[in-house]
Amino acid sequence: MALSVNEASPDFCKGNCVDPMAVMRALHTLCADTDPASLEARIEAVLGGIVGATSVLLALWDEEANDWLPRSNDRAAAIGDAAIAGPVPLSLLSHAVHTAKPLVVADALADHRFSMDPYFRDVECCSAMAIPLVRRGSPRAVLIFENRAAPGAFGDSQLETVSAIAWLLIVTLDNARSYERLERRVIEQAQQLRDAQARIAALSRSDGRAQIATNVLHNVGNVLTSVNVSAHVVSKQVQESPSSRIADVAQLLSEASDDLQAFFGPGGKGQHVPAYLRELSQALEAERQQLLAELQRLCASVEHIKNVIAMQQSYASSGRLMERALITDLVEDALRIQEASMSRHHVQVLRDYAPVEIAAMDRTRVMQILVNLVENARQAMDEVPGERRLDVAVRQAAGSIVVSVRDCGCGISPENMQHIFSHGFTTKTEGHGFGLHSCSIAAEEMGGSLAAYSEGPGHGATFVLQLPASPAA
Asked: What is the pTM of this model?
């Protein structure tokens, strides 16, 4: 979509000279919006005003569509076939993407590289400027400026200024789009969980499998803790985003607006602004990478929830699915699911993995047991002062694989040890007594065992899962 900007802001650009006040308005744009569609429109309007464009086109690379798409409000109109006049000049876009370099064209209609583009059909004159925004070696966005009033409307000074500002704007836009995708994913997964819980409740009412439903809800609850922690981390990071520091630059420029020539001239404070903006763009990029990592952890937790639910729904109707797996990979997945919780409670995880063979095992049920053991160990250390340490060991024994999870928590008394795997037994204030019982049953059904050891209150506890080392078929 082409957004007309000159009529709305006629004083942004005079000839080929950039109005310094326009730079301040562009920086204010970063602080004004977190909604991607609104922010994209503001980027087009402000940058178009700086260079004196009659219209601005913003094309974004969409990972999901694996294609170039116009800005959010125009996503229904994809870039399309080169033979059809589309929402952007495909020849200019292709040139910018291929060369990954800015381009200024005095008149696209007089340039053989672009004159045959269907986009320019029925156009008499069009000055153009294309700026690709490159990240990790490939263009991720392309800004195309047009002026159909006169040829040669854009110059090198405008190109340099807009290129510097545009990168920071696109990083902010990319972060806003990441926040939007994350929020949408959390909403979708939450709805899937509610639907799954409703199906499980219906299953228990119709078939009398209340125990299955209880086990699912208990295990899902463990992983939901990690989901909630990830959502909290993302929310806090958004609130503390370094993008708010742009307001400081905008305020500095506002204070110097009466004499910007001296401000940006030799010895002026404005000499530090470009370096500051570069550092800020690096901080925004680092923030984006952290958000993506948190999103991956959240997706891994949700995927485990879906696997647990799917496994329990087929609990009585199908045989166990045996897969080739390395037990240390499953242990790492379980620790990764609980990583945020461990960090929040200052628990140090120590690993002691001996070489083990790949074996055939029910991955989902083993994961179910491991997540329960790790979560229980973490909870046992909640009230422990000083160092909190979780020791996880993997060993290959004669005909079996052994995983031990040892904590330095509250320990287990001899009288409680006798009932630790009993149905309904719990020492937790808000516990239900189903977790360890279901884990013990699952281990036995896989041909293994689950045992507990403790020297008593205050001496921690060790849980040992033993599984048959069946050859991997």
From this structure: 0.41
